[in-house]
Design brief:
With 318 residues, the protein is mainly alpha-helical. It has helices at 2-31, 37-42, 48-57, 64-76, 90-125, 130-143, 147-161, 178-212, 215-222, 227-239, 241-265, 270-280, 283-311; strands at 82-83, 88-89. Helix content is 77%, strand content 1%. Strands 1-2 form a two-stranded antiparallel sheet.
Length: 318
């Protein structure tokens, strides 16, 4: 128990350090932009006098280190700044867009996990036979297929030609219209999930094959325990350590891919928001979106680290 507490403590201690590191990177990289932040708030039609006044009022002519600590203080109060001539709140816009990105990421993750676990286990159980060969070819095709290219194919096939699923339009709320939400989210989630599933299938198959070759599996089979029981209760759980590690890394791919997929399918998430910031030169909006996405990635990876403990109790002694 003490080892488990120490493990969780180390992760929690590392969290604020990583958060500060992300804020430093986001702030200093965006500060290199030639665009004056005053214009991103006042608009392109602002007069030089208005820009000068805004610069002095908000300390934009202060040393960069002083500006960073002021920025960090604002973040501690939940203030991500404003943008545009109407001074729209960055935090408010992110609050509206972030749930869409998280929904898309979660839907893609669920599809990727279902595909990879089912096909990876079948591939391992039928090692070197025709189901294994077919699944391995399928995984290679998935790995070679970029999400954005697959998204275009899905739109052409299921939306433009067959008219079965929508590729644009409003996104219904899940609890008020689950059917409409699933229909609207099906194509982008599948396009996001396929490349991740391709790699996860191979990882799960390799882990399963290694476990199936171990002595305890042969011993259990020798005692007459059905193969399905051995796989479900022992082999699958032991084989999940490596896939969970890879999954933690692939969450970054899912979040980053979701940003691109949102633009293709016109979903009102973080992808559309950062595109709006880039097109209109809204520095504060770009800072806020990049920061929130990076923090979400850090937090999710820490949660994945915690899952190791649930899957393999031996890690608690590390």
């Amino acid at each position: 128990m003490n080892n488990l507490v120490r493990l969780i403590g180390r992760r929690l201690i590392a969290l604020p350090i990583m958060v500060i590191g992300v804020t430093i990177l986001v702030f200093f990289i965006t500060s290199l932009s030639p665009i004056n932040q005053a214009y991103s708030v006042l608009g392109e039609n602002a007069t030089p006098e208005q820009v000068q006044q805004y610069t002095e009022e908000h300390g934009l002519d202060d040393p960069i280190v002083v500006q960073y600590f002021r920025y960090l203080g604002d973040l501690c109060h939940g203030d991500l700044g404003v943008y545009g001539a109407t001074k729209v709140s960055v935090a408010e816009k992110i609050g509206q867009a972030l749930p869409v990105t998280l929904e898309l990421t979660f839907a893609g993750l669920v599809i990727a996990l279902i595909l990879s676990v089912v096909l990876g286990v079948i591939s391992a159980l039928y090692r070197d036979r025709w189901p294994d060969q077919v699944i391995r070819i399928f995984s290679i095709v998935c790995l070679a297929m970029p999400s954005f290219w697959l998204a275009v194919l899905l739109i052409l096939l299921f939306s433009s030609n067959l008219g079965l699923l929508p590729a644009s339009g409003a996104l219904p709320a899940f609890f008020s219209d689950p059917g409409g939400w699933c229909a609207r989210m099906a194509l982008p989630a599948f396009a996001l999930a396929v490349p991740v599933a391709g790699q996860m299938i191979r990882v799960i198959r390799t882990s399963m094959v290694e476990e199936l070759d171990k002595d305890y599996v042969r011993t259990a089979r020798g005692f007459g325990i059905p193969m399905g029981t051995v796989v479900a209760k022992n082999v699958l759980r032991n084989a999940l350590i490596s896939p969970v590690t890879v999954l933690g890394l692939k969450i970054a791919h899912l979040i980053g891919g979701a940003v691109v997929i949102e633009v293709i399918f016109n979903l009102p998430g973080m992808g559309m928001l950062i595109l709006q910031g880039i097109q209109a030169n809204y520095i504060t909006l770009i800072q806020g979106v990049v920061l929130v996405v990076a923090l979400a990635f850090i937090i999710i990876n820490i949660i994945v680290d915690m899952l190791y403990v649930l899957i393999d109790p031996r890690i608690r002694t590390v």
